[in-house]
């Protein structure tokens, strides 16, 4: 046999030798099916899992929902605040800039402090800034800042 070449291993032996583990043939195995749990293990209760799914679903939809809702409102905002279209478009530009910069800022923070605290912090920022947007009826000066602060949460 030439140097560097190994002997060909039959397929039946290759399965048993792969990754240094013993493979189990389901046809010849005497293992009972109840050896493995039917449900994956988790330390969360069903209500905690439901709440976690709702929180993660909410956080996943915030950015697309915010951008989709905000864009059609631009003409209405122009008449509400009595400003030019360029001034209202500036708020959208600020939102997009914050959308681009937020991962750069909050990515390293989530690596340092963990994903959960950073996610909860950014969702709190999102909630507070959206309450500020909803409460703002006549002050254009507050308008450009709120979409920008809403973005890190989405």
Short summary of the structure?
With 154 residues, the protein is mainly alpha-helical. It has helices at residues 11-17, 46-70, 74-81, 85-113, 115-135, 145-150. α3 packs across α4 (85-113) and α4 (85-113) packs antiparallel against α5.
| First and last CA, distance | 63 Å
* Mean pLDDT figure: 75
How would you sum up the global shape? elongated
Helix content: 55-70%
C-alpha Rg, in Å? Answer: 27 Å
Unreliable stretches? 13-21
The quaternary structure here is single chain
Order of helices and strands: HHHHHH
DSSP strand count: 0
Sheet with most strands: none
Portion in beta strands: under 5%
Structure class: mainly alpha
* Tally of contiguous helical segments: 6
What report would you give on this structure?
Its main location: membrane. Keywords: Membrane, Transmembrane, Transmembrane helix. Residues 52-154 form the Major facilitator superfamily (MFS) profile domain. The protein is mainly α and 154 residues long. It has helices spanning 11-17, 46-70, 74-81, 85-113, 115-135, 145-150. 10% of the residues are buried.
Features:
single chain; 154 residues; mainly alpha; 6 helices
Layout of helices and strands, plus pairs?
Elements: H1 11-17, H2 46-70, H3 74-81, H4 85-113, H5 115-135, H6 145-150
Helix pairs in contact: 3-4, 4-5
